[in-house]
Specification:
The protein is an all-alpha fold. Helices cover 66% and strands 0% of the residues. α1 packs across α2. The protein starts with 18 loop residues before the first helix and ends in a 5-residue tail after the last helix.
Length: 70
């Protein structure tokens, strides 16, 4: 007589996150947001200073990403 298959073991429990880890992650998200905001401001200054040069460089950059298969 065959036995019924044994049930699969439960998945390992996720490690508990302590308050320090959560606070650190929240602070890192804030830094990431600040860096992004700073980059946007810098790009905005460049665009305002020389929009034609910015557009030219963006077109070149986008063209490079296409793999130059024309």
């Amino acid at each position: 007589m065959s036995r019924p298959p044994m049930p699969a073991p439960p998945p390992p429990a996720a490690p508990e996150r302590d308050a320090f880890a959560e606070e650190l992650e929240m602070k890192l998200r804030g830094v990431d947001g600040s860096v992004r905001a700073s980059l946007v401001k810098q790009i905005n200054k460049i665009v305002e200073k020389s929009p034609e040069a910015f557009v030219k460089n963006m077109r070149n950059w986008l063209h490079q990403g296409r793999g130059n298969d024309d």
